[in-house]
Amino acid sequence: MKLYRTLIAASALVLGLSACQEEQIGLFGDEHFLHFKQESSKPYRFSFATVPGKEEIEYKIPLTLIGKALESDTEYKFEVVTKGAEGELVTTAPKESYSFASKNVFKAGVFEDSLAVTFKNVDALSEEKVLVLKIVDNEYFAPGPAKYNTAVIYLSNYLVRPDWWDSDMETIFLGPYSQIKYQQFILATGMTDLSGQDYYHIVAYVSDFVYYLRDLDAKGQTVYEEDGVTKVLSSVPYAKKI
After folding, report:
1. Which of 44, 59, 201, 221 could form a disulfide with 197 if both were Cys (CB 3.0 to 4.6 A apart)?
2. For residue 156, which of 69, 50, 4 has the smallest C-alpha distance?
3. Closest CA to 67 of 151, 147, 148, 143
4. How does pLDDT run across 29-42, given as a tens digit for each residue?
5. Residue in 57, 45, 65 with CA at minimum distance from that of residue 195
6. Long-range contacts of residues 228-236, Cβ cutoff 8 Å, at least 24 apart
7. For residues 125 and 194, what is the distance between their CA atoms, to the nearest angstrom?
8. Is residue 128 scored above 50 in pLDDT?
9. Which residue has the higher pLDDT, 196 or 95?
10. Contact in structure between 136 and 79 (CB atoms under 8 Å)
11. pLDDT at position 28
12. Which secondary-structure segment (H or E) carries 222?
């Protein structure tokens, strides 16, 4: 009976979503609006320190389409924001640190795609820089909701405390942030970003990290914090639970 009710609820949800999509398409007719998936107030961050040995990498920024699905791949336009009113965020990253394809298209038949940016590790990234991108009109697309029209990406070649390493992450799982700990966490798990992960996935990644540190201890390769005295393992609260 419970399974039956679950199936009925799921069917209702699918029908509701389909109705909403049809209503949205009807509302906008043949017009197409394009915007970044993440709100402009929530920046992205990328550091070359998270990909040791790489001097160039492709980074993808999610995009969302409002309107009917496209019948063919369609070119869109954006600009690098270099000027703005006083107090507005503008690009400080040097031109040699980023590049784009000569033609950027949104794929046919989908409502989500991405803008690919190639980042290059240059000396200027020893200080954190910012790249600001904005969707602009062309003959095929108009910008979508204003709060989604700008993408902000902070660039560096050193580790910066990520937003997901908040007070809960510090108290329950990983302990105080340090560049050494973050770098070792990346080496142990292959993960640079835990934002959006549920509790069980976080537990799995942190557990892998703890076992990794314990294994290094057993091999006589203990990892210490910058003071050369404090074991990274001893500052990870979750290690006491496993």
Report:
1. 201
2. 50
3. 143
4. 689 999 999 999 99
5. 45
6. 232/178, 232/180, 232/181, 232/184, 235/175, 235/176, 235/181, 236/173, 236/174, 236/175, 236/181, 236/206, 236/209, 236/210
7. 24
8. yes
9. 95
10. yes
11. 52
12. none
